[in-house]
Amino acid sequence: MSVLVEKADLSLKYIAHYNKVKETLFEGSPDVLNAQRKKAFQDFVMQGIPTNKNEKYKYTNLHPHFLPNFSFIHQKEAQKTDPNAIFHCDVPQLDSYVKTTTNGWFNESKTEGDLPEGVILESLEKMMKEQPGLVEKYYAKIAKSDTDAMVALNTAFAKDGYFLYVPKNVVCEQPIQLINFLEAPKDSFVTQRNLVVLEQGADVKLILCDHTLNLNRYLCNAVTEIFVGENANLDYYTLQNQHNRTANISSVFVQQERDSVVTSHTSSFHGGLIRNNMEFVLNGENTEANVFGMAFLDKKQHVDNFTQIIHKKPNGRSNQVYKNVLDNEATGAFSGLIHVVRDAQNTNAFQQNNNLLLSDTATMQTKPQLIIDADDVKCSHGATVGQIDEEALFYLRARGINEDKARLMMMNAFMHEVVRKISVEALRDRIDELVERRLNGEVAKCHECAYQCEV
Amino acid sequence: MERKVAMEEQNKLLNDVTQADYKYGFVTDIETDIIEKGLNEDIIRLISKKKGEPEFMLNFRLEAFKKWEKMEMPDWAYLKIPPIDLQSISYYAAPKKQPKYESLDEVDPELLDTFNKLGIPVEEQKHLAGVAVDVVMDSVSVKTTFKETLAEKGIIFCSFSEAVKEHPELVKKYLGKAVPVSDNYFAALNSAVFSDGSFCYIPKGVRCPMELSTYFRINAANTGQFERTLIVADDDSYVSYLEGCTAPMRDENQLHAAVVEIITMDRAEVKYSTVQNWYPGNKEGVGGIYNFVTKRGVCRGVSSKISWTQVETGSAITWKYPSCILLGDNSVGEFNSVALTNNFQQADTGSKMIHIGKNTKSTIISKGISAGRSDNSYRGLVKVMPGAKNSRNFSQCDSLLLNDTCGAHTFPYIDVRNKSSVVEHEATTSKIGEDQIFYCNQRGIDTETAIGMIVNGYAKEVLNKLPMEFAVEAQKLLQLSLEGSVG
Fold first, then answer.
1. Pairing of strands B132-137, B140-144
2. How far is CA A35 from the centre of its chain?
3. Residue in A355, A366, A370 closest to B427 by CB
4. What sign has the CA pseudo-torsion A58, A62, A64, A65?
5. DSSP 3-state of B15
6. 8 A C-beta contact, residue A247 and residue A210
7. A70, A71, A274, B485: most buried, per Cβ within 10 A?
């Protein structure tokens, strides 16, 4: 009973806080945001913070991460230092258009290079004020607050994030890079809300990097809605590299129209708790969704990849590959769902989850699921949990390669299946290097920037 | 054009699948002794009293009832279950006459007729099949054959009530050890009100010379049947146990919440096979049996083995997960299943393998076939505990869809907690390939026969695991369930 009260109290803490800062939240916020705020808050009150009893959070216990006394950042703070001055993204040869956010707020900064005409990469808050018509059509349309407590909490507290708009038939040759920093003087609760809209025939590559710049505790609850128009093409890369005291809950909702292709690639190098929700709705015929992910976990880290691919129209293709390497007392989870609705004939859906356990105290929980209501489909999934093939290891050792090196080679090969799906060459090379260093036992650090990541 | 015609023909044939009627629908007219409807402590005391049970059984029932009262019916399954009024069920029905027969001639001819209609060769089995049948007719065992042959070997195979009276020490020692009273809602209910069932004990070093079998039939209307089966295999023993079921046609839903417990000691092996063909409801989805069964085996001894084989074609709703707890080092668990759903049938079935001992191995092979407007789900759990070093699991779950109105779903749960174990799971969902049918057509095999061949070939891997007599029956059942479209 006491546990129950404690848990209810935990949600109450956030409810009470909302009521306390309600005016600040509404004040100065664009109408588009405020229009959803109240309902979202009610939805959160109804649902509360999900517990392990909730099937969606069976493997991830959020409560300890909501427990600390966080301070909230409801107003934009003046930039003390220019993040660009202290942070240099160290992907060599990556020629990208870079913007940053700090604690969920979009930073106005000078950036070298230009975006193609008509492409907008701006603060969501600013765009909502300047062009509400453009944003209103999309905001909170696919991230539903009544079925997802984290979305509800995000929508209730949302103030800013980034907004990317690519007009019809515009191709961005240069990848767009967005670096999300967490840097606050106190332990902080961060809310970030993003919106990506690709019109018909648009083509863009988006690279997101998550970093922490000091050792304070963070809980980051981010929601991203992505609309992909007919025949558009989106590459969506996420690199997660945060310290062990960070909880990162990221929910990405993608809606695809016909003939569009979306490739998502998530690399979780480091973090305390990482929860990636990925929901793809294949809303048009002949769409393709590729969802890849990999995670390296050690110490007491926890990574939970939760994907849902909903095939709504015929001739769709989806492909999911997730790989994890777990060491020490790390816990990993994967829940993947392929849902083929009745009319989505001729669907090809594939899902794979492979895991390597390196210690007896690491735990992997995986739940690949199929819900198939159409008959002319080819759907399959596979999941394995195991170790490096001893025979292959023996083969390498018989050729004079020492055991440690042979193991490393095998693990590298294991991960490379996911890494090679990255189409931006500079990024792929960089991630290959990071994988090797991570497997080598070096803590994943971007050697110039994240000097404080080592915890 | 021709292709289109072929398609139409195929669709028509597949539609005919839904037209296949239940062949085993009839009601045996035997007087039954039914106590009044409802569920409360008094009813439980009454059941226990009527059965003349010792104190420990009554306490077992009451404990279960107390736990059950605090539980709620789970709702996580991928099933649509109409509300079940447990108070409107009579919890005890026994044939009024309780004769003790020495030979078949003395048995109520009507009962024998029932068996004949079902095609159970009670008489023939004596001579031909060598199978001892403990026929359970509405909860109370009527006839046990081959008892004497078994007794010579020291094997105990009798009705549960008999076991309670004659071997209370064994029952007391093993009852509720694989499925504790508070395990789940329906297991608790069963523990409180179970009427009868089978008990089987194989002593040390004995290899049971024949396949033991029990035919369950739900007969009296409005009596949920709560069977209880307990199989104990002592060191170095072996037994193959068969369970098969058919039920008469009924409009009202009937609840069947059985519990099967298996315990194997050192190096013992139990093979448990089921063919389930209860009334699935009519084409509109009215009626049919709710089959909510808890089946669990504990490999308590080292190098022991439990294997579950099931062919599920009946029941309006099937909800069960035959499981193995692999406690002893080097123990082995197996699960082989064919589940066919048609019309408005629903099935949420699969297996649980809990690896606790070292070097334990388990295999799950599940074949789902969906037709009509049915939903067929596989749900399974493979859990490897930290101490289960070098454990191994392989799971394969295939689904076959016969038309575009049915559904096939897969929900595997995998939980691994050490580095030396390997767990693999794979699943596929597809329909019968047009190229496969075309290939058969080309060789002069008509579409109907071709589909039959393909479905049977698809299920072969599991059917092969069944004992001979059952394999034949199972193949017939699959064909019957797909009749009209498949030869």
1. antiparallel
2. 26
3. A370
4. positive
5. helix
6. no
7. A274
Q: What letter represents residue B405's amino acid? A: T
The reply to whether A452 falls in a domain is no
Rounded to 5 degrees, what are φ and ψ at B241? -120, 130
- For chain A, say whether B409 makes contact (Cβ under 8 Å): yes
3-state secondary structure of A304: strand
What is the spatial distance between Cα B336 and Cα A308, in angstroms, rounded to a whole number? Answer: 29
Close Cβ partners of B218 (under 8 Å, ≥ 6 residues apart): B138, B225, B247, B248, B254, B256, B278, B289
Task: Spell out the residues 6+ positions from residue A5 whose beta carbon is closer than 8 angstroms to its own.
Answer: none
Residue A203 lies in a domain: yes
| Residue B307, burial from CB neighbour count under 10 angstroms (0-12, 13-18, 19+) | buried
- Look up residue B292 and give its DSSP letter: E
Would you give the end-to-end CA distance of chain A in angstroms?
Answer: 36
Q: Cβ of B79 under 8 Å from any chain A Cβ? A: no
pTM of the shown model: 0.83
User: How many residues in chain B?
Assistant: 487
The one-letter amino acid at B349: T
* Nearest residue on chain A to B402, alpha-carbon basis: A375
With residue B184 as reference, give the H or E element that holds it: none
Cβ separation of B427 and A382 shorter than 8 Å?
yes
Tell whether A370 lies on the interface with B, counting CB pairs under 8 A.
yes
Helix (H) or strand (E) holding B190: helix B185-193
Please report the ipTM that was assigned to this predicted complex.
Answer: 0.80
Contact B410 A383 (CB under 8 A): no
In a domain, A168, yes or no: yes
Q: Provide the domain count of chain A.
A: 1
B381 and chain A in contact, CB less than 8 A: no
b (16+ CB within 10 A) / e for B346-367:
bbbbbbbbbbbbbbbbbbbbbb
- Residue B264: what are its φ and ψ, rounded to 5°? -115, 135
Nearest 10 degrees: Cα torsion B309, B312, B315, B320: 40
Q: Is residue A6 part of a domain?
A: yes
Interface touch B423/A384, C-beta < 8 Å: yes
Contacts A383 to B, Cβ<8 Å: 412, 414, 423-426
Nearest to B416 among A363, A375, A382 (CB): A363
* Sign for the pseudo-dihedral over CA of A136, A137, A141, A146: positive
Round to whole Å and give the CA distance between A330 and A345: 40
CB contact, 8 Å: B401 with chain A? yes
Find chain A residues with C-beta within 8 A of B391's C-beta.
none
Q: Find the domain containing A351 and state its range.
A: 2-388
B315: left (phi over 0), alpha (psi -120 to 50) or beta: left
Q: Which of A367, A375, A378, A411 has the highest number of chain B CBs within 10 A, making it the mutation to test binding with B?
A: A375
C-beta separation of A195 from A222 below 8 A: no
Tell how far CA B206 is from the center of its chain: 25
Per-residue pLDDT of chain B (487 residues; tens, 9 = 90+): 455 555 566 566 555 544 555 555 555 555 566 677 778 888 888 888 888 888 899 999 999 999 998 988 888 888 888 888 888 777 776 554 444 444 555 555 655 555 555 555 554 433 333 344 555 554 444 345 566 778 888 988 888 888 898 899 999 999 989 999 888 999 999 999 888 888 899 999 999 888 887 655 444 444 457 888 999 999 999 999 888 765 555 545 678 888 999 999 999 999 998 888 777 877 777 778 888 999 999 999 999 999 999 988 888 899 999 999 999 999 999 999 999 888 888 999 999 999 999 999 999 999 998 888 889 999 999 999 999 999 999 999 999 888 888 889 999 999 999 989 999 998 888 888 888 889 999 999 888 778 878 888 888 888 888 877 677 777 777 766 665 444 3
- Helix-strand-coil split of chain B, %, nearest 5: 25, 35, 40
Of the candidates B261, B267, B215, the residue with the CA atom closest to the CA atom of residue B238: B267
